[in-house]
Amino acid sequence: MIIGKSNKIYVQTICRMTVKPTEGPLTSRLAEQLQELSQQGVQRQLLTFFPQGSACLQHQNSTYLNLAGNDYLGLASNLSLLQRFYAHLEQEDLSNNLSLYGLGSGASRLMTGNHDQYARLEERLTRYYHKDKALIFNSGYHINIGLLPALARKGDLILADKLCHASLIDGMRLSEARMIRFPHLDYDRLEQLLKKHNSTAKPCKQQAVFIVTESIFSMDGDCADLSTLVRLKEQYGATLYVDEAHAVGVRGRCGSGLAEEQQVIDQIDLLVGTFGKAWGGQGAFVVCGETIYKYLVTTARSLIFTTALPPVNIHWLNFILPQIQTMSKERKKLGQLGQQLRHGFQANGLQTGGESNIIPVIIGDEKQTLVLAEQLRQQGVWIQAVRTPTVPRGTARLRLSLTANMNTDQLAALPQQIAKELARLKLAPSPAP
Ligand SMILES: Cc1ncc(COP(=O)(O)O)c(C=O)c1O
Question: Least C-beta-crowded within 10 Å: which of 103, 260, 262, 416?
């Protein structure tokens, strides 16, 4: 199903879907559920895009400003950098070593897929974060569904921020430990839960407690207070797991993330970063102590039972790491662009928040958010409407993500444009909390 000229056509098209007589009970049940989801404005679909110059994309022959991607440093779409990368591969005598630069690794890391570029990158990550060990997984999703099921066991407790990403939630669900989600950034509530657990835990059972958070939250763009979490984890003997998917490359003087900026890398037990966003590649890593590393290599199912990443991708990550470390100018620019846009939204009476280059504009209603995003697309701006289950029901929003290859002029008109569209569609923005 492709998006229609307007959301109305799109909803009507979906509602007209019928079940063929030959299809069984499952298909008819699914068709009914799809119809319901579509009426609620939460059905999803796959669209095709082509990158188009700096910070833009092309879809069905139209060009849009891309405010929905996570290529935060503009590396994935930087053509001259890509040319340099391939030129650099040729210098490495590509013709004699072609198999080292392949697109398929041929096996999982634990079998024969663990090519030499992995060791090189893991060693460099270890030095970058001053940690004992680094371990690369195929994606942020793989890593987050792998760590907790491997490390947490029955009788353990996982305390997670309510707005943690779906991959973290899936990891908690797959583990046998008990999970409690505390209100977003409410560390008083977290401390109460830690106190309560400590007063009832049986020391002989070696029960572990995990505190799980993102550093920059993916849908709100706000930041965890990692120093407070470190204090709590030390006071209550917990293990701290921080997902820096949206902060690596973007925050910290050397670009290693928010933990670097808040000077707490040493005290984080499991620090996760992803390569698919600011690094412009694919994969994810955790930096941790040696015992945790060895345990993960032996037991993390999403590491063990999947084919290793393509060698050429890890070559790219090795090529890009030193460049990321020096991109302070781009990081500063991202921060400034974010601040300017947030101020613009506030000045136009829109409900926004956060302190990063991810900027939400909260609309509330799922369908209204879809219609608004579609109207903006018709004006050449590609913004994602984010709905349940990605965000809690009733907090549907436009999620704008800025990249360092954008400029002030491209963004200047946006606040007024969105406010005007809202007024035109007679949509009242949700009241500020
Ligand atoms: C906080 C967080 N962790 C993990 C992931 C998954 O990362 P990947 O896209 O590499 O699977 C995402 C994806 O958006 C995310 O926002």
Answer: 103
